[in-house]
Amino acid sequence: MQNPGAAETPGFQDTNGDSMKREYPAAALMAQVTAKPEPGLFESLEDFTLTQTTPGRREWVEATHHTIALHLSKLLSGRVKYEVTGERSGQWFVWTGERWSRSGDAAAQVHAAFQRLVAGSAVVAERVVPTQRIVPYRTVKLTPETAMAKVESGELTTDGQGNYHSAKTGKPVTTEMVEDKKWAGATSNLDGTIRQLKSMWNTRVLDGDVWDEDGYLLNTPTGTVDLRTGEVRDHRSLDLITKVTNAMYDEDAEAPRFRQFMDEILPDAEVRGYVQRALGAALCGDYNEHHMICFVGVGRNGKSVLLEILADVLGSYAGHLPGQVLVERQGEAHPTELMVLDGARLVTSSETRSGQRWNTELLKKMTGGDTLRARGMHQDFRDIRPTYTLVVATNHRPDVGPGEQAFWKRYREVPFTRKFEGAQADPRLKHTIVSDESNGVLSWLLEGWKDYESNGLQEPESVTEASRNAAANASTFAVFARECFEPADGHDVTAGDVFTAWRNYRAVESDNPRERPTRSKDIGPALVGELADINITAKHLPRQGGNRPAKFVGIRFTDRALELLKTPDPYSFA
How far apart are CA 324 and CA 121, in angstroms? Predict the structure, then answer.
């Protein structure tokens, strides 16, 4: 590139096609393109303003889509990316100075960069120095008038017979380069150059999975925190981060009202420490604790306010799933509903109504380390990596069917037993904490992460007991299994009697006459699973011929079950 303030004169070419003004385009052009961006040239596309002028920094480039795109990619390297393949292929990303943004106007910003850098649209009438940095040229025949002017300036020599030579190389010169303003202003050339720009190595992303790939990096407005070391460093476009917290990193930030709030809603110090470690661990996108955390308690106890505060602090690292996504319903969830999981660290969900059966298949996938498939509106499906921790705030324990041991292994219940009403309630508490103490709340989360790294989750007994109790009372069938069977070596019960006892029990104890299991063939795995949860081992033997009905070995009926078997069958029409 020319130095600022260098003379602006069109170049000339000798008869061998060599430029007298530059040593490219060819190998030297590639060397220019593969070089690092000039320090301080542009920190982001927002720096391309209509008022910016830099005299003399202009490159004369052959007016073809490919060569202009090569030069443009050098100027925009580290500032724009185009996803070539992957589920988000066809999208532009723009570096904002702290993260990569795929906002709806990213493509428009790239087009604007062409207009300002190539077409010179930022020039206003009163300005003598344009902002244009790339000058498209075309080669034309050298005119006698131009040639003689260059002879007088010493750039060319002449033999007096109409032949001109380079004063530097002695080679014949027959053509000159002239600025092609018409080319630069044509929409077709803008579109063609942008198409070429999409394939340039330094502005393309071949694999969409590279975004936010390092789960140990937490991006904040004041720098990127490396959770491995605790180091905070400047933002780097090479990290390929698309997310950022709302709160700033400030190791000295305090949050006295927030800490008081935590003391109020979770008075047990062990439970409070566990919650801090679990939420702090959620900052890491490579967090491998396969669990979901349920904040359970009747309303006005602070659980939802806590999650709303955390979501505001974490910014785009937080996502929210509507409660309806987590419950069973007719048909599958719309694939766009799960896109909030994409790259999130903390995913929260809200109340589910009492009596709604939870979608355990989805929840087991979300908390078991599985990759999910989802898509944005009018986009292709993409893989959603498990980078998130799921926290659900609900007034009611999960309504889960029998035989869901895999779900309960992941379930962690945190009881919220306080209630704040009347003078105790502060309707502006969330606003106060978010406005005044967001940075301190982020510091609190980072403290939790450090504690988790050093000591693990350290689940308190009260959380373990609440989780066990929830599993034991999750369904009418779970209570039936606990009340109606006891371990007994050498004993067995038939599956037919078990199903009869269950139907009679359901008729008395359940509000749902169709509560599962509803078929005798489903009773086997359901009962074995529920008994295993209370440390009773039963073996289910399927039916073998007409004289050997299905049965369960290693258990016997309790007195309650024997009474149920004497009860007339409520479904009999005899």
Answer: 50
Q: Residue 86 has what pLDDT?
A: 59
List the domain boundaries for the chain: 12-210, 256-471, 475-566
20 pLDDT tier (thresholds 50, 70, 90): very low
10, 60 contact by CB (below 8 A): yes
Handedness of CA 39, 45, 51, 56 (dihedral sign): positive
CA 104 vs. chain centroid, Å, equals: 17
- Total Cβ atoms within 10 A of residue 370: 13
Length of the chain: 574
pLDDT exceeds 90 at position 132: no
3-state secondary structure of 120: coil
- The stretch 162-170 carries a mean pLDDT of 92
300-319 confidence digits (pLDDT tens): 899 999 999 999 999 999 99
Q: What pLDDT does 9 receive? A: 44
Give the up-direction half-sphere exposure of residue 87: CA atoms within 13 A in the CB hemisphere: 18
**Closest of 319, 131, 121 to residue 212, by C-alpha:** 319
126-129-130-135 Cα dihedral, nearest 10 degrees: 140
End-to-end Cα, the chain, rounded Å: 99
Task: Among 134-138, 317-321, 336-340, 348-352, name the one with the lowest average pLDDT.
Answer: 348-352
CB 47, CB 76: distance < 8 Å:
no
Residues 396 and 275 sit within 8 Å (Cβ to Cβ): no
Question: 564, 484 in Cβ contact below 8 A?
Answer: yes
Q: Is 257 exposed, middle or buried (0-12, 13-18, 19+ CB in 10 A)?
A: middle
Which of 63-77, 190-204, 447-461: highest mean pLDDT?
447-461
pLDDT tens-digit readout, 433-490: 999 999 999 999 999 999 999 999 999 999 999 999 998 888 889 899 999 999 999 9
- Hey, CA dihedral for 267, 269, 270, 275, is it positive or negative? positive
Strand locations in 116-185, DSSP E?
A: 134-141, 156-158, 164-166, 173-179
The sign of the CA dihedral 278, 282, 283, 287 is positive
Q: Scan for tokens 């509903």, then name that residue.
A: 337
Handedness of CA 76, 79, 80, 83 (dihedral sign): positive
CATH fold of the domain at 256-471: Rossmann fold (3.40.50)
- Residues forming a β-bridge with 413: 294
**Of 107-111, 231-235, 263-267, 394-398, which gets the smallest average pLDDT?**
107-111
Query: 204-234 burial, b if ≥16 CB within 10 A, otherwise e?
Result: bbeebeebbebbebbbbbbbbbebeeeeeee
Asked if the model's pLDDT at residue 79 lies above 80, the reply is yes
CATH assignment of 475-566, among 1.10.10.10, 3.40.367.20, 1.10.1200.10, 3.90.1300.10: 1.10.10.10
Pairing of strands 173-179, 204-205: unpaired
Q: Which phi and psi angles does 220 have, rounded to 5°?
A: -130, 165
pTM of the shown model: 0.77
Radius of gyration for the alpha carbons in the chain, expressed in angstroms and rounded: 35
